[in-house]
Design brief:
Elements (H helix, E strand, L loop, with lengths): L9 E8 L2 H7 L9 E8 L18 E7 L10 H19 L4 E3 L3 E4 L2 E13 L2 E11 L7 H4 L6 H5 L5 H20 L3 H10 L7 E6 L2 E10 L5 E5 L2 E5 L5 E2 L6
Parallel strand pairs: 1-2
Antiparallel strand pairs: 2-3, 3-7, 4-5, 5-6, 6-7, 8-9, 8-12, 9-10, 10-11
This protein binds biotin.
Biotin binds next to helix 1, strand 3, strand 6 and strand 7.
Length: about 250
């Protein structure tokens, strides 16, 4: 446990909003400080990756967006932001709840074979640098029911630990870990971030089945390149994939 105060952070607490990422985007014109976070108890139009939505019961989970200005990063270094956020979530789960999680490339956090958190980073590039980024995090804390469709695929801190937690306290803790990991980026500790990322990559070095171009293939994840593409060894050949070009076959319904 650490001191609950977060120096310099400005947290905007909302009961309800369309999406905290959209809210963060709407206040960018007011030049919010680097340590600004938007937290909502409920989202009416929560955004997931691509055209997916993010649905979460009111008041049960972390729904948060943090604004950052990684102007020191070049556009081709943007994947480091993903490494920062995934490390922050893993540190948070391990330190605060003793939960060991994995990074399911590119934007999910898994415990076992179930998703506990999703990440949506939206960034704006200006010239040769990143102007700003909105880091959106949805992390399941107290939700126990995910509906028939998702119950095999999703989990929460409560389902794992059997205990209920105060979501707003968890938000402060997560922001604390995010701050520490972002400091690693400012300090250009690229290798440490990459080492952590690879060490905690879901299904690294395991021979598994995937779907590529509608076909089931067997392959082994061997890493992620500097652009954030997944490297998979398939039939003796190293192939790289962008998000959505490869699908993990995890559950029976895949
Ligand atoms: C995904 O797994 O598809 C990414 C989910 C990201 C959800 C979070 S919840 C807080 C923030 N606001 C949004 O509308 N989306 C992100």
């Amino acid at each position: 446990m650490f001191n609950q105060s977060l120096p310099n952070h400005k947290i905007i607490w909302l009961n309800e909003t369309e999406s905290t990422n959209l809210y963060a985007n709407s206040i960018l014109k007011e030049n919010p400080a680097d340590e600004t976070a938007i937290v909502a108890a409920f989202q009416t139009k929560g955004k997931g990756q691509h055209t997916n939505s993010w649905v979460s019961d009111a008041g049960k989970n972390i729904l948060m967006s943090r604004i950052v200005y990684p102007v020191f990063l070049k556009p081709d270094e943007i994947f480091f932001l993903n490494k920062v956020v995934t490390k922050a979530i893993l540190d948070f789960l391990q330190t605060e709840f003793s939960i060991s999680a994995k990074i399911k490339w590119p934007n999910d956090i898994y415990v076992g074979d179930k998703k506990i958190a999703g990440i949506l980073i939206e960034n704006a590039v200006m010239g040769s640098h990143i102007k700003h980024a909105i880091i959106g995090i949805g992390l399941n804390i107290n939700q126990e029911n995910f509906g028939e469709l998702l119950k095999q695929k999703c989990t929460s801190v409560k389902l794992i630990s059997g205990k209920e937690f105060i979501v707003n306290e968890s938000v402060i803790q997560l922001l604390h870990h995010l701050h520490n990991c972002y400091e690693m980026l400012i300090g250009k500790r690229f290798q440490a971030l990459t080492d952590f990322y690879l060490k905690h990559l879901y299904r690294l070095n395991e021979s598994r089945f995937f779907k590529v171009d509608f076909e089931k293939v067997e392959g082994t994840i061997v890493g992620v390149n500097h652009k954030g593409k997944l490297i998979v060894l398939i039939d003796g050949e190293f192939k790289t994939f962008m998000n959505k070009e490869i699908e993990y076959l995890i559950h029976d319904s895949n």
